[in-house]
Structures are given as C-alpha cells and as structure tokens.
Amino acid sequence: MSEDQVVTGPGSTTRRSLFAGAGAVGATVVLAACGGDDGSPDGGTSTPGTAPTGGGDTGGGVTLGSTADVPVGGGVIFAAQQVVVTQPTAGDFKAFSSICTHQQCPVSRIEGGMINCTCHNSRFSIEDGAPQGGPATAPLQSKTVTVQGDNIVLG
C-alpha cells in the first residue's frame, strides 16, 4: 500500500491516517496550482493515464492498488487521484470521487458502511455513493474501476 492511501473499515481509522490523507490532499492542491493550462503539473508533457503518485500505468488506466488493500464493508481513499474505492460485498468493487458534493471537502474516512466527510458531517453509501445524512444532497460522482488480476485499475 502506498502513502497516499487511507484504508478505512471497521476499527481502522487512526489519527495518523487522517493527517496523512489530509497532507496528501494539500500537496495535490499545491501541485495543481503549479500546473500548466491543460491541467498537467509539468505544463503539458505528462502522458495521459499516468498517476503523479502511487500506482503504475497499465495502458488502460492507473493502477490504484491491490484488491487485498480494500476491506469488505469498507474502503480506501486514494487522495492523490481523488478517488475512494469501496468493497460493499466480497469481490464487488465500487469507486467514487473523494470530493464531497456539499462544499468540495475531501472525504476522510469510511466507517459503518458510510463514506464520511468530516468537514460538515455528510455521509454517503459505500454501495452507490448516495447521500445518507448531513448537508450533502447529491451523490458522490461514480468512477470506473476494473479488477485486473489482483489490481484495482482506475479508468
């Protein structure tokens, strides 16, 4: 597992993982501010489909991590890619934007079958990203992930 992942599930949230995720998001924001007009950090010489941190390019997308990293009934937040991957039931992987639809704060943990944004206490279902409480009324944006061998691939 890479440093930009926050694994959460029953009893796995720690203060250290929360601060690590927040630091990764902050670094992403700083790097984005230095990017070129096309959104790439180097002014346009990045290869599409490659991740700035974590995971490798599989040709069809970015490898986020291993299926073993995502607990059943929980999930992993990939802060650098702004994606949260969940596994509501064994072998069923879902992916959503990790940016809360209320005021665009990054979600910070997955607990009790919910993706939680601690900025204003919005909660979203790990099954479909639908809002389950708090001020958010729109679901998290769905992302496409596939399982290739033991890897979870974005895109």
UniProtKB/TrEMBL annotation:
One Pfam family per UniProt: Rieske
Source superkingdom: Bacteria
Keyword Iron: yes
Alphabetized InterPro entries for the sequence: Rieske_2Fe-2S (IPR017941), Rieske_2Fe-2S_sf (IPR036922)
Keyword check for Iron: yes
Name of the protein this chain belongs to: Rieske (2Fe-2S) protein
CDD domains listed in its UniProt record: Rieske
Gly residues composition bias: residue spans: 52-63
Keyword annotations of the record: 2Fe-2S, Iron, Iron-sulfur, Metal-binding
Residue ranges constituting the Rieske domain according to the UniProt record: 62-154
Organism, as annotated: Polymorphospora lycopeni
Region (Disordered): 39-65
